[in-house]
Amino acid sequence: MESLNEIVSSGVNNVYTGTSILIGKNEKILYKNTFGTKDENEKLTEEDIFDLASVTKVVGTATAVMRLIDEKQIKLEDKIGKFIEVSRPKSEVTIFELLTHTSGMQAYSNLWQKYRGEELLKHIINIQPQESFYKCYEYSCLNFITLMKIVEEVTQKHFKEYVKDIFNEIGMGNTCFNPKNKDK
Asked: Where is the Beta-lactamase-related domain (predicted)?
């Protein structure tokens, strides 16, 4: 683990301010450590809260979608028009294409500057793919926002509630969206 300490310490010194690492196997903790600071003067601790931010796509959204696939409630080849009301050609985009960023959706939208909440979601859901539809990879948050809406439609639960249930089942009860703790 000495080389891990060196690698992470180098990152803290050169790339990021701090991190917390836990490695486990079969319910046994093999390694845990914190590195760096949460601000200029305060050392990071095991108790500090991190915002998942873009990791939410993999940890929350992809996990929720794959759970629904495992439960045979949806399929990778299902078209999104099966779950949400949206016009063509977007209605022809598949779950797989959303997950793999091959839906043709633009990388980003500034709709958040104009709309909030459900109104924002409605506008994002209705953004149509670009001309490169299905032809190439383009990372897009809009894909995963659409997937979140599909999870809500299929489960009839708020996305946060559904994912929290999954987190609790797998022992990640302290994992959440939008942490309230200001000391994160």
From this structure: 16-181
- For 43-100, write each residue's pLDDT tens digit: 888 888 877 777 888 889 999 999 999 999 999 999 999 999 888 888 889 999 999 9
Q: What's the pLDDT score for residue 181?
A: 58
Domains contained in the chain, CATH given = 2-36 (no CATH), 53-169 (3.40.710.10)
Asked if pLDDT for residue 184 goes beyond 50, the answer is no
